[in-house]
Amino acid sequence: xxxxxxxxxxxxxxxxxxxxxxxxxxxxxxxxxxxxxxxxxxxxxxxxxxxxxxxxxxxxxxxxxxxxxxxxxxxxxxxxxxxxxxxxxxxxxxxxxxxxxxxxxxxxxxxxxxxxxxxxxxxxxxxxxxxxxxxxxxxxxxxxxxxxxxxxxxxxxxxxxxxxxxxxxxxxxxxxxxxxxxxxxxxxxxxxxxxxxxxxxxxxxxxxxxxxxxxxxxxxxxxxxxxxxxxxxxxxxxxxxxxxxxxxxxxxxxxxxxxxxxxxxxxxxxxxxxxxxxxxxxxxxxxxxxxxxxxxxxxxxxxxxxxxxxxxxxxxxxxxxxxxxxxxxxxxxxxxxxxxxxxxxxxxxx
Amino acid sequence: xxxxxxxxxxxxxxxxxxxxxxxxxxxxxxxxxxxxxxxxxxxxxxxxxxxxxxxxxxxxxxxxxxxxxxxxxxxxxxxxxxxxxxxxxxxxxxxxxxxxxxxxxxxxxxxxxxxxxxxxxxxxxxxxxxxxxxxxxxxxxxxxxxxxxxxxxxxxxxxxxxxxxxxxxxxxxxxxxxxxxxxxxxxxxxxxxxxxxxxxxxxxxxxxxxxxxxxxxxxxxxxxxxxxxxxxxxxxxxxxxxxxxxxxxxxxxxxxxxxxxxxxxxxxxxxxxxxxxxxxxxxxxxxxxxxxxxxxxxxxxxxxxxxxxxxxxxxxxxxxxxxxxxxxxxxxxxxxxxxxxxxxxxxxxxxxxxxxxxxxxxxxxxxxxxxxxxxxxxxxxxxxxxxxxxxxxxxxxxxxxxxxxxxxxxxxxxxxxxxxxxxxxxxxxxxxxxxxxxxxxxxxxxxxxxxx
Lengths: 350, 452
Known about the structure:
Mean pLDDT of chain B: 90
Order of helices and strands of chain A: EHEEEHEHEHEHEEEHEHHHHEEEEHH
Order of helices and strands of chain B: HEHEEEHHEHEHEEEHEHHHEEEEHHE
Strand order of the largest sheet of chain A: 9-15-14-10-13-12-11
Low-confidence stretches of chain A: none
Radius of gyration of chain A: 21 Å
Distance between the termini of chain A: 50 Å
CATH topology of the largest domain in chain B: Rossmann fold
Number of strands of chain A: 15
CATH class of the largest domain in chain A: Alpha Beta
Largest sheet of chain A: 7 strands, mixed
Mean pLDDT of chain A: 96
Oligomer: heterodimer
Helix content of chain A: 25-40%
Distance between the termini of chain B: 18 Å
Strand content of chain B: 15-25%
Number of strands of chain B: 15
Shape of chain A: globular
Number of domains of chain A: 2
Number of domains of chain B: 2
Strand content of chain A: 15-25%
Largest interface: A-B, 59 and 53 residues
Structural class of chain A: alpha/beta
Largest sheet of chain B: 8 strands, mixed
CATH architecture of the largest domain in chain A: 3-Layer(aba) Sandwich
């Protein structure tokens, strides 16, 4: 049975325009499209606590125009909240463990908490936060909009599919790109037969080593080709004259990608996952998964344009569902794995 | 298994006609284009017959001629030509069409022309006339398919604001070659057929008279949909609406194709259009106030858009009519009545949205079926206009299989709606009765949009 939401509390490190903090706050404050209709949270107060930084003017505007409640203390912000959203600064890959712990301590038992971004700054901190939430009777979940964004085409792994290998292409600085890659790919591959089994090894590859690893079969060129075939943002000649171009088949991708880096993960089941961060080759996220029967499931993780960035409506819907149903939309173990892998990436980065 | 695979091998409406023969072709040539009037009585069984060249040429790669107005970055012709020459992403792989571009005819060469560069790089000759492009400089038709891409380029506009692209002229020159050669091959024509209804009718009549598969229209009906849904066939549908952006005699056609590819799947199929009423500005909202269903559909379609303009500094808005009016003082809307009582509305809401969204309401339950037809525009969210991939794939499919994957009557009707709306606006927003648009047809059973 759906719970009536009377108060949602949002704790943000900073409030700036076009940040995930704004995208989520404004959707709960104003309303957003969901399942083909615009919806508002009627009779629900939205409370905000800003730790530091950002635009006081923009916060003040929301107080005036949309009845946003702002509190100086976390305790007051969280009091009697049905659900709590914590949003880190920036894209969300750098967690503030102290802030999450303080939030979890202030929450009333039975409350639900969604963390936008990484659950914690590392493996141990993530475990501690999960344990703290559990001990206090709180439901805890974390992730980014990439986990729930549109797939073009709208594909998913067949139920209990046996898989061999997966690859995702992303762009951006470390560790934001890696974080988004995990957020985009893990929800797809965790549906494989037996579910996620964990990662037993991580290998970092950089620059020419990335391509050498491909030639040596450490990752699959055909999966790279399948993933890139979904890109709508191939760089190089298409930018100059609009042509379509098979940058993998024509061997152009090596020249286009600036300072490529990658990560090859061996799972326990065994399953191999490769993350390629290829700045300069394409400007969208695309993945491909090889099934045991030789088939491939591949798609673009479509991120709609600014300013609306409608993938945040999908994330807002997942959070609202969490608050209404009292059940996390995905397992906390995914978040623990993401935090652990980001930790590992930091250690192994050369 | 078909020799060319795509995701819509639907042949439930395969025509019962035999292969085209030279004798039948000659006989058909004697038939005048007056058969165009017969189009008003088209029945559900009508479809394009199999092309004569089909299996006989299976051993060699097929050849196509592309007839274009201009080829420069992001012109429609560039999108088509490059997909045939370079290939494109399709179902998780790079797809090279199983045919060669054997000839180009290009009408205009702007300073940023790309036709000559493509011609040099791929060794595709540019012929000085359409006839030479189709015959490869020889005495008879020498290609297996023809694409007419008459969009973009410098062409005059008439007093109604229509750009006089030479689509009809190009088409008739193609037909002349078919007639002189005694055989015809599949033809694709981009966008609406022509700027005059009689010319549109004549084009479709020519295709029937000479028996060649004729496909036309926009990429909207075949691009990705978000969510990836189709109108269930034989849905008891009450009304359709598309909200989009762009200009009159331009993107309005895409909006109408967006709605029509869904509407035609309603119970009873398409019955043709009874009237078209186009309005600008405040008069739209006065009429909409009397149309409760259209109002609901407008907001349902907007809820599928990813670009609804919000107040400055906000990413999202729950739009109201007041907000729409404020954003769109120059709004344009078309209100279309079909012969079976069905209604279609199309809204061009510049400065409110920059995408194409659809909503339709069913009769019994009032359920709304809605989606966005996804167009990742170059310079905006893409570098290549990949919504053309699916359209090109459909053209390939037609050339290989010798029949159309969907009906040209859809585009005949949307062409007529566009022309009538232009006329309605030109006459100051009067409602125009369209008895000539009694174009009835049934859709293909299987969906033809781009999905997994």
